[in-house]
Amino acid sequence: IACAMRDSCLRELSHTAVLNRRLLLSLTPALLTLNPENALAKPALDAASRFALDIPDDFVVSKRKAVTGTLFVAGNFPRASVISVTAWPLDALLQDDARSRALPGLPQELVIAEHATPLSFTDIGSAKSVAQLLLRARDRDASSGALQSALTLSQLSSDGSRLEFECATELPVSDPDALEEQRGVRQLIRRTRAASVLGSVPGGDGAPVPALFSVWGSALEQDWDKDLKAPLEKTVSSFSVAAK
């Protein structure tokens, strides 16, 4: 009897294992074609504990040690989709912007009193003007000003502590005919969702100075519209900066 029970159990275990293997094999195509909108996210923590965010599981992080400028980059590089975090000291940001746009007789669009510490974005300017300030800085940083991003959306949180905005950037194309043959389009548009919050970075003397921390989630328009918009928006929404 004992032998019969043992043989019966072994047959049942073997049958269950076969079913599990068949189930796994049947699910494999679905697992391989999961919609990125439903893909798992993983936390990305800054080594210096300055900020935190969740990034899509298939994005690869590129390590950086910068204190200001671009602090973090992660990408789904085969699809040219990138998530980055920047931190720009506010005074330097305003000064660089004024120099790049200076015209005789025209006042600066945004002016902050020297050594003033803004408590919210409303102390700096409107949602649109601050978003455009950040876009110009990003374009200068990425292309020395060769690119010009167009703001499509800007909004402040109810307490003025968080700015969210979107933009579109036309990328240079050397051969539109070849691009159309390869991708079915004659121009490349990069879509970006971003958010910015107030924080601080070390100044020249080591003392903290006000800074704007921003997260940027970008993808080519075709991929944005297809399946990358939702995961990038989730990443931007998850972004937070440590309180100092």
Features:
alpha+beta, 244 residues, seven-stranded antiparallel sheet, Protein Transport Mog1p, Chain A
What does this structure look like?
The protein has helices at residues 2-32, 90-101, 127-143, 176-183, 221-238, and strands spanning 41-45, 51-56, 60-62, 69-76, 81-89, 149-156, 162-171, 188-202, 208-220, 240-241. By secondary structure, it is α+β, with helices and mostly antiparallel strands. The protein folds into 2 domains: 1-33; 39-241, Mog1/PsbP, alpha/beta/alpha sandwich (Protein Transport Mog1p, Chain A, 3-Layer(aba) Sandwich), CATH 3.40.1000.10. The strands form 2 sheets. Strands 3-4-5-9-8-7-6 form a 7-stranded antiparallel sheet. The longest helix has 31 residues, at 2-32. The relative contact order is 0.15.
